[in-house]
Amino acid sequence: MTEEGLGIGATLRAAREAKGWSVQEAGSRLRLMSRQIEAIEAEDFSSLGQPVFARGFVRNYAKLLGLDPDELLGRMAVVKLPGVQEPESLPFTPDQEFWKSPWVLGGIAAVVLAVAIPLGLYWWLTSDEVEPPPPAVVESPLPPPPPPAPMLENPQPDAAVAAMAAGQATPEAGADAAVQADAAAGQAAAPPASPSANSPAPAASAQPASRPPAAPAPASGLRLQFDEISWVQVRDSSGQIVHSGLNPAGSAVEVAGKAPFYLVVGNAEKVRVIYKGETIDLKPFTSVNVARLTLSP
What we know:
The chain is an alpha+beta fold. It is built from 9 helices and 9 strands. The termini are far apart.
């Protein structure tokens, strides 16, 4: 179909018209714009970009029309730029206007929607699921610690401590042990009486020696006098020990404090208690030679 006198563009246009195709139909088959088909047929190759692109367009156009592409490319040798090496076949490269086609834009939009719709649906379904709150942890308050036991100073003589360590738990038992220890110590300390030719009759020696008169105690205080060794403990109205210990024979103690006073007196027969100037009789309060009494204010 080609003729020697016809140029490249005229040959391609004659072949297209022979098939009864319009410029738009030929462009849609090649996926080219109408102006690109017209540039090829007008041999305006410079408007097609680089020579390599023009040769590719001519090759594809010739194949579409059933012409020999090598013959047409041989005629284009005169427009080949020096120093440019062209490949034998050029892959189809669409123009920038290809991306403006409604078909291309529609396809891109469809792909975006196909991805976005499932993601949005998944997010909407999972957002309604509300995780239940964790169970509340209720901490029960700890019970308050027990109050410390009161520390009371209660010195006892050695005999009372030994008696309590042996199983006697009450301070009165300790006082009894102290009284018994005082009595034993008094008997051991008493020297034996030596017989004398001038000694009086036994009846006269059996008479008890008269006690020295008791010294008056202050009207607001408490006084203790000891004819023999004796252990005594005195507490005041607050329960505090104001006097406690083993008292030697012939000694006296004045106890100051706030009444009422609570007394435990060992060897009570040999102890005189003077309270507010009056001597207190210990016999009603004595048991096993230990007196326990309370002096009211």
